[in-house]
Amino acid sequence: MGPGTVTALRGLAGLAGLVAVLEVLPHTGVVSADYLPPASRIGRTLWQVLAEGAFWTALTDTLTGWGLGLAIAVVAGVAAGVVIGSVPVLRAVTASTIEFLRPIPSVALIPVAVLLYGTELQSTLLLVVYASFWQVLVQVLAGTQDVDPVADDTARSYLLGRWGRVRYVLWPTALPYVMTGVRLASAVALVLAITAELVIGSPGLGHEIAVAQNSGAVPRVYALVLVTGLLGVAINLVARAVERRALHWHQSLRREG
């Protein structure tokens, strides 16, 4: 039995233990079943939710906001990071601006998003793009700073132009950082997409959770929250798989292999 199998079995054992605790705890009286239904009841509700067409429509809306926002943030973050990182003067000029804007919480932009776009998809995109963009940009800038000076000087000695140095020297060095930024941004994008739907009322799983909460459907709330958690796990697994695929040549993955 390999280490990966052992890790997977331990994870399943921990999950089974959590389900058992959630099933027993409401029956002990420590927590009222009105606020924490047994796991079996949540599971039945989840099964019912999965049979509803409205659920799949909400899931599609959430994935649309997540996917579009993430794609825009990745393209903008990589482009800006490569340009800024390749020009030392530009990096020095923009450093203070980046450090000022980056810590601003995306949820603070919710009033602005509502004023501009109301409850439309654009509100979700504004929050998702803003939060995810910085994850990618910061990683790309770190990657551009990690370029080997000897490799860069060698490229110059072979008379490679700026684009050639970016393609053959900077990009291979920065790609591991880019993939890390994309993986982090994918998780952040999901969090902000659900938050926008929950607070603003944009169509999606977050809006369904808010409706269920307001109507007092507690098991449905937990079922939908469980779906968002499973969605986050799936996105993380896909992001890691893409990262391994893109970096199969990198020495870190070769050591793992």
Characterize the structure shown.
It is a single chain. This protein is mostly helical. Helix content is 82%, strand content 0%. It has 11 helices and no strands. The protein has helices at 3-28, 39-50, 53-86, 88-101, 110-117, 121-145, 149-157, 162-199, 205-214, 218-246, 251-256. The relative contact order is 0.12. The mean pLDDT is 84. Belongs to the binding-protein-dependent transport system permease family. Its main location: membrane.
What key phrases describe this protein's structure?
257 residues; mainly alpha; 11 helices; elongated
Name the beta content range: under 5%
Shape: elongated
Helix content: over 70%
Low-confidence region ranges: none
Number of strands: 0
Give the termini separation: 17 Å
Task: Give a short account of the largest sheet.
Answer: none
Which structural class should the secondary elements be placed in? mainly alpha
In angstroms, what is the radius of gyration?
A: 23 Å
**Number of H/I helices:** 11
Order of helices and strands: HHHHHHHHHHH
Mean of pLDDT: 84
Protein name: ABC transporter permease
Main location: membrane
Family: Belongs to the binding-protein-dependent transport system permease family.
Organism: Streptomyces vulcanius
